[in-house]
Amino acid sequence: MLIHPSMSYSRWTNCPPRAPPGDPQAVYGSFDHLILLLGRVADFTVRDRKRKLQKMQATGGQWRPAPGMQMGPAPPAASAGLRPPGGPTPSPSSQATPSPPRIPDFFGMAPVPPQTGMPSSYSQCAPRTTSVAPPWTDHSDLELKTKAAVEEWEQIRSALQHFRSILGPDFQPLEKRSFQTPFGSALIYRSYDISCFWSYYYLTMIVLVRAHPDMPPHAQVAAGVAAYQTRQYTNDVGRAAAGITIPPEQGTMSPSLMAAITDHTLPLFFAGVQYQSPQQREWLVTRMYDVERRCGFASAGLMALGCQGSWIKAHEAGRGPPHELRFNTQEARAAVRDRGRRGPSESEVDDDTDRRFVTVRPQTRMHWAIGILGEEDDG
């Protein structure tokens, strides 16, 4: 299934899934259906952001939790003892009233680690004012929008639950082959692609909970507020990823194994920002750096850095245990420190005037590489 990122979600179904859901011989079909559901969650999140900003404006520019909402990070616990999301929450009378969380400072998707300067490409831009929701005065209209948003959110959750219910026994974990991990008993499946499928299913549920209409509009703040409800899913992401073991340094890895542990990095990134246990954090950072070093996937190291930055920021805000920033190599530490503070070296500047290997044949340029490499003056 090939979907362009700029395509409107209303047209995504023009690219149908390649196979029906639940077929263990064509897991890519189930994954295609899951991507459509994940896109539906993302589309809802973007559309509902305007209403959330209006709701914040109605409360003086500060997000306030709904009555009875359980906030804050979840305590470390094994998956078997966790409360499923959506279950009963402790009585508000037995807990202190939580204060609205502080919005962290970050340049992109995740908070940055300490002693990191703003990239030069950002600092050279003219200062811009923060966008705000358009003014409004009709409070009854906002209540109707909120009610409609909750109903749509419930429909998406029901669709994900129904999707999970139609998956057959071949998609269930192999309990007899399980072993203990920092996240509890490992989730081991019949194939790597089924393991990756479930990891992305839990990722979709995490994003859905964080996108609830009562959650803050800022993704990083919503991740902390929803941590109590998403802890089961984040733990299951770790159990599924830890269920795939990698050989020691002197061993070799097959392409399918390298692809599987690489695919698990994105769910681990979304789940890892709220890990509280030192053992879970150490495992995640080690796995991310192993993927970066042994699979050549440099984004895994940046994800590990982003998770660590989130843990440090959470500790500074009093919402998590301390964490010491860890780099895989001294070169990585230097690269992060110098990122954005230097221009490209002479060896990094490409010479776009070299045309020695380009053969110009106007009569065939639409059939050969010149159709891509050609310039306007090639005729």
Lateral strand order in the biggest sheet: 1-2
Strand portion, in percent? under 5%
Question: Tally of extended strands?
Answer: 2
Query: Which oligomeric form is depicted?
Result: single chain
- Portion of residues within helices: 40-55%
The overall average pLDDT, rounded, is 79
Largest sheet, in brief, is: 2 strands, antiparallel
- Spans of at least 5 consecutive residues whose pLDDT stays below 50 are 76-98
Supply the helix-strand structural class.
mainly alpha
What is the gyration radius calculated from CA atoms? 24 Å
In whole angstroms, how far apart are the ends?
36 Å
Please write out the topology.
Elements: H1 27-58, H2 120-123, H3 139-165, E1 180-181, E2 184-185, H4 192-210, H5 219-225, H6 227-242, H7 255-263, H8 265-272, H9 278-295, H10 298-316, H11 330-338, H12 370-373
Antiparallel strand pairs: 1-2
Helix pairs in contact: 1-3, 1-4, 4-6, 4-7, 4-8, 6-8, 8-10, 9-10
